Amino acid sequence: MLAFLSNPPGLAAFDALKIVIPIGIGLASAAYLTMKVVTGDGFGSDKSIPIASLRAGDSTHDKEFDEDQDAFVERCQAENGDVFGVYLMNLNQIVVSGDLVQEIFMNEDFNAGDSADQLTNMRSFLRPMTKAQVEFDSGTIHGLVRDNITPHLPQYTARIVLQLERNLDIEMAKYRTTNKREDGTFLVEKPATVLHQMVATATDFGKVLGSGEAQSYSVWKSFVHRAEYSVSSPVQKHIRILAEAATLVILERRRLEKETEAKGEVYERPDDIMQKMLDSFDKHHFVDLEDVCGYLMILILASVHTTTDTSTNLMFYLAAYPQYIETLYEEQKEVLDQIQKEREAHRQELLAKGQPIGDDLDPSEDRFLSAAAIKRMVHMDSFVREVFRYRTECLALGHRARKDIILSNGMAISKGVTAIINMKSAHQSPN
């Protein structure tokens, strides 16, 4: 590079700069990455936490973990106790098991967002989606879910089920023709892909954050993604489309509200998440409609992956235990039959009294899989809870320490180190 600077043969000064600048950037990047690797987070200064031994020939624990997660964690726990260090996904991580798991969840100095961001560059991706630019640990997302989604899930359940049924018919139609077998059945090679498509159509989220596959921390990938997302977010176009569509809906709602109030009547506000977010505009410090839509897209991002992940596990467990399918199906029929009878009896009672039958007793909704109906399905509830308990990940839900932390057993987890949860010890312990 010095030769180019001193006497670039046959090149004008500007041409020389065109060569020098990329080389300089490349060297600077290499120096930065080297520094990050050399000074990267280790297991911390405290030596009280044992490090799991490596198999002969292995330089990390990844291969042994991938071959048999349960066997790997059981071996490490038997040799080292409830807390031990592992080298997985290009990261030094502290596995926490048993009663100590609660300490990770309850201590605010352990942060799950920091851990997820380290692997996925999540915050760099999400931050350009909102205009308020609040920190994602400020509680805005948590507040939106707590105030606008969780309390109203019973109202949304039937709508979600109907939409999923429609989408399932669309997706299955593709396989009935292309993957049909001689016995009349048809093959779906990747159910997670089908479920993902059902839950959310045409988003860039899967490409950015992965489709449920394990990811590894990479200094270079993190550096590139953060630089890329600071310039442009791949979901900006979706936010603009959503805002344009929402504008028309909001204008129509305002028109109806004025029209209703002009008649001296009370306007019945629409029962959906967007309306609830608009009604709490000032509370959550939204800037404008695009900001609201940005947060809506973040909520969609979270729901797409959690719903797809859970649904895929349920499908595989149904396939693994087909003897339960008939029981679950018959229970649904019995519950819906009973609800249909109760609703019909209520309608007849109102008719006998000469009272009007409201929309809430529409006969076409008698067999909806509502939240109230699902609550009566004891077998279904048990099956779903068991799938949650026996989900496939043995180590998950990493939390990164924001300062040096001493656990109740006296072991220290240093600032910057990730504590990852031994899910089996939490969900399948006989205690």
How would you sum up this structure, described in words?
The chain is α+β, with helices and mostly antiparallel strands. It has 2 domains: 2-118 and 392-427, Uridine Diphospho-n-acetylenolpyruvylglucosamine Reductase, domain 2; 119-320, no CATH class. It has 19 helices and 7 strands. Strands 1-2-7-4-3 form a 5-stranded mixed β-sheet. It has a two-stranded antiparallel sheet with strand order 5-6. Helix 9 crosses helix 10. It is globular, with a radius of gyration of 27 Å. The chain starts with a helix and ends with a helix. The model is unreliable at 1-41 and 201-214 (pLDDT under 50). InterPro entries: Cyt_P450 (IPR001128), Cyt_P450_sf (IPR036396). One of its GO terms (molecular function) is iron ion binding. Keywords: Metal-binding.
Briefly, what is this?
This protein has 431 residues and is α+β, with helices and mostly antiparallel strands. It has helices at residues 2-6, 13-38, 62-67, 69-80, 101-106, 112-120, 122-126, 140-149, 153-178, 191-199, 205-209, 219-231, 236-262, 273-279, 289-320, 325-352, 371-375, 378-389, 423-427; strands spanning 83-88, 91-96, 110-111, 395-401, 405-406, 412-413, 418-422. The chain folds into two domains: 2-118 and 392-427, Uridine Diphospho-n-acetylenolpyruvylglucosamine Reductase, domain 2 (2-Layer Sandwich), CATH 3.30.43.20; 119-320, no CATH class.
